[in-house]
Design goal:
eight-stranded mixed beta sheet; binds 8-demethyl-8-dimethylamino-flavin-adenine-dinucleotide; alpha+beta; FAD/NAD(P)-binding domain; single chain; binds P-hydroxybenzoic acid
Length: 397
């Protein structure tokens, strides 16, 4: 591979990572007339194919519409007004969150959001895939320098701002000098095995099933594609169970073994460790951390993608304030505002994780506590409304 240097480039905003956060930020900046360069390590096909989250809060849907990428979501997304709990005694209870707090959620795959953002990307925008060795070489109070290998050539990109949208394992967060950033981390003693199945969902609404065998979730991506999760011990490998074993365990937890879970080929599996992490602050000099680069939540409450979208929108507004009006208050306030929302998401995600997962070493006392919590959620409108506001994201606006 040649390493001849390419001519240095300049851009107002260098965005590292083309996940939902990076692509949305680039799109919103474009709509404000602000140029950017996006550097993505993986291929375009890989980025568009990655199956991950699928529950979009109302605020996320509004942001995508504002960004001009909501048309297919409005056509194909499934709007939900409630979900079902299935409790260890086999009883089912509806959580009518829209009736309680006035907000809905939409089921629409993260990779569909990514595809829509890619399709909206115009030719004059600089979006590079397969970029190697991305490194933030300089972070000054008034600008930054990013180095990478682009089309086999060493390239330097000088910029006013770097947006670190490169996820939990990216290079942006480690570029902050030691002592300037604190990472807060919590590992939950469980993992989720997620499968995508070519089968209609068991019910049109999500089912959160808490059973003595463990937790299971029935979700969907379309009327013919189910997304299902099983809680599994943290050390279990992704291939530990056969497809038939996964189906049987899902059926036991979701239907009590009635054999009514629709079956179809399992198209994909993923093992998701249940982890919580927050980096504070989310800014160092001209570097701003966005989405999973700054914080991750366990998937229990489906907040990861929604928090990433909220960060991208906040940073786009702050950069617009800077470039269009010469105002720096929004940029200066970015970290505090984003962190307030991130901690709200963390608190609800941790509480939902604790509510959904009986641990193997759990005592009878702990089980009774969970029972009491469910009883309050199911009998008190005030309690259920507070839950609904958190679940739909209304509480974090
Ligand atoms: P992403 O989506 O991780 O995108 C980061 C992008 O940066 C690229 N990158 C680099 N590019 C250049 N140079 C480098 N050195 C780079 N390092 C990384 C990556 O290739 C990638 O394209 O972060 P973003 O944009 O902040 O979006 C966040 C969401 O993706 C995330 O919060 C959710 O998907 C979390 N999550 C889930 N959330 C849910 O609400 N429900 C789910 O079911 C759910 N399933 C999941 C998930 C996350 C997963 N991962 C990351 C372990 C399933 C999985 C497997
Ligand atoms: C999903 O469809 O991937 C999903 C839905 C709801 C959750 C978690 C994941 O709480």
């Amino acid at each position: 591979m040649s390493t001849a240097a390419a001519a240095p480039r300049r851009t107002p905003v260098c965005i590292i990572g083309a996940g939902p956060a990076g692509l949305l930020l680039a799109r919103l900046l474009r709509l404000s007339g602000i140029e950017s360069v996006v550097l993505e390590r993986r291929s375009r096909e890989h980025v568009a194919r990655r199956v991950r989250a699928g529950l979009l809060e109302q605020g996320t849907v509004q942001t995508l519409r504002t960004a001009g990428v909501g048309a297919r979501l409005d056509r194909e997304g499934l709007e939900h007004h409630g979900f079902r709990w299935r409790l260890p005694d086999g009883s089912a209870h509806r959580m009518p969150f829209a009736e309680l707090c006035g907000a809905s959620v939409w089921m629409y795959g993260q990779q569909e959001v990514v595809k829509d953002l890619l399709a909206a990307h115009t030719a004059e925008q600089s979006l590079y895939f397969g970029v190697e060795d991305v490194r933030i070489a300089e972070l000054r109070p008034d600008g930054a320098l990013v180095r990478c290998t682009l089309d086999g050539r060493l390239t330097e990109i000088a910029c006013d701002f770097v947006a670190g949208c490169d996820g939990f394992h990216g290079v942006s967060r480690p570029a902050v000098p030691a002592g300037e950033l604190t990472g807060h981390r919590l590992d939950h003693p469980v993992a989720w095995l997620g499968v995508l199945a070519a089968a209609p969902p068991l019910s049109p609404e999500l089912i959160y099933a808490v059973s003595d065998r463990g937790f299971a979730l029935q979700s969907m991506r379309s009327p013919t594609v189910s997304r299902l999760y099983l809680s599994v011990p943290p050390g279990e490998g992704v291939d530990h169970r056969t497809d038939a074993e996964i189906r049987q365990e899902l059926d036991r937890r979701l239907t009590g073994g009635a054999g009514t879970l629709p079956t179809g080929p399992i198209l994909e599996r993923v093992l998701v460790p249940l982890r919580s992490f927050v980096a504070e602050p989310m800014q160092y000099r001209r570097l701003f951390l966005v989405g999973d680069a700054a914080h991750i939540v366990p998937p229990s409450a489906a907040k990861g993608l929604n928090l990433a979208v909220a960060d991208a929108r906040l940073l786009a507004e702050a950069l617009d304030g800077w470039y269009a009006h010469g105002r720096r208050e929004l940029l200066d306030g970015y970290s505090a505002t984003a962190l307030r929302r991130a901690w709200q998401g963390q608190e609800f995600s941790a509480a939902m994780t604790a509510l959904l997962h009986p641990t193997p070493q759990e005592s009878a006392f702990d089980r009774r506590l969970r029972g009491a919590r469910f009883e309050r959620l199911l009998s008190s409108t005030a309690e259920a409304t507070a839950f609904a506001e958190q679940y739909t994201g209304l509480a974090r606006r």
